Amino acid sequence: MRAGSPRLLREINDRAAIEALLRNGPLTRSELEGLIGLSKPATAQLLTRLETADTVVRNGLRGGGRGPRAQLWSVNGTLAHIAAVDLTPETVDIAIADISGAVLTEHKAPMPAKHGVLEAFVSAVGKACGQAGLAPDQLLHVVVGCPGAVNPANGELAYAPHLPGWNGFDMPGRLREQLATSVSVENDVNLVALEEMVAGRATKVRDFVVIWPADLVGAAVVVNGSLLRGASGGAGEIDGLMIPDRAAAETDTDRSGGTFGELLSNTSICKLARAHGLAARNGHGAVRKALAAGPAGREFMADLAKRIATGVASVVAVLDPELILLSGDIAQAGGTTLNDLVAAELRQLVVPRTPLQLALVTGKPVRSGALHSALAVARETVFGLPAATTAPFRGPVVAGSPR
User: DSSP states of 110-172 as a string?
Assistant: First the structure.
């Protein structure tokens, strides 16, 4: 049994109500009452208390058929704002959202190849904030997703040869100085894994791996529901993994094998496509052309699947996860055809029969993962909510209730 002071119980139930409103959007009093399990008078008092504190606001009315319309309540989104950023060698893609999760504006800008990257980044964030009527220092937190990983010992970005302008300094520290707000930098595929845990195929999976088979191949490893980052932040950096020559095409090209990243680079995949009579400008374009070619493109798809599977096999052999998810442009372009070919190859290479599926979240998975990560920080800071965004709602605490 657990007892507590009336103030403590009110605080716990207030947080429960806020979490329910954040999860479900605008709710009527009776809907909120049903979700958190409090009585009608207690729920009414709770809403009055939260409205007085400016934590919740009235948000229109819901029609009630023949009866009166009911007042809707929602979390006051203006309490805090965050930025979610997807940084690539070519572009920076930014979303500004309020603490309710409502995206206020989006902004995408080109990035210079090497020099002036920090200035261009700060300028892009400033423009996005301006579109939302904010200044960068009014953001509570910024999450940046990018290739590579930040070394926790010195803040430097490692394993990211495609981002040369970002090397050699404390990246999150410098961004905090420039933006005058809290900033964290996270591996892009790690953020995809987070998004899959929140809204994808891994909502009920504790141990899984996301593989991003493309230029600068990456992986995210989740063990017991938590991201595995490694001592230097390099867990999942499989781009340099050596792949034996069985993964190379049965042609006169690429017979010596290479690293996982070399075999799945745009240049290498386009070279493989040409060996099969297909011309394309990039990897996902080659995959689309192969699928459109029907049987004529099947051999190319089989050779590409062999390359992917041979790298994935090393991951499966070490981790034996519950699930492998393929994400990114090439995986989505190949669809179930490529997924099934990779799965068939994988069964020939490793003993564990790990299911292999396409990631469910498409579109902007890195930025979406950054958004959820930033919201988790903001909500913990402002409301004291647990950072585990997938934790189930547990209801109110009343005096003497067991936990």
Answer: E--SSTTHHHHHHHHHHHHHHHTT--GGG-SEEEEEESSEE-TTT--EES-TT-GGG-SS-HH
Give the mean model confidence (pLDDT) for residues 64-84.
88
- C-alpha distances out from residue 398 to 140, 320, 386, Å: 32, 43, 19
Residues 101-136: tens digit of each pLDDT: 999 999 999 999 889 999 999 999 999 999 999 999
Q: What confidence category does residue 246 fall into, taking pLDDT thresholds of 50, 70 and 90?
A: low
* 400, pLDDT greater than 70: no
**C-beta separation of 189 from 214 below 8 A:** no
Q: Match 């068939």 to its residue by tokens.
A: 344
- What pLDDT, on the 0 to 100 scale, is given for residue 387? 66
One-letter identity of residue 94 = I
| DSSP collapsed to 3 states, 322-380 | CEEEECCHHHHHHHHHHHHHHHHHHHCCCCCCCCEEECCCCCCHHHHHHHHHHHHHHHH
Nearest alpha-carbon partner for 247 in 292, 314, 297:
314
Contact 374, 9 (CB under 8 A): no
Judge whether residue 66 has pLDDT over 80: no
Q: Return the closest-CA partner of residue 208 out of 353, 351, 358, 321.
A: 321
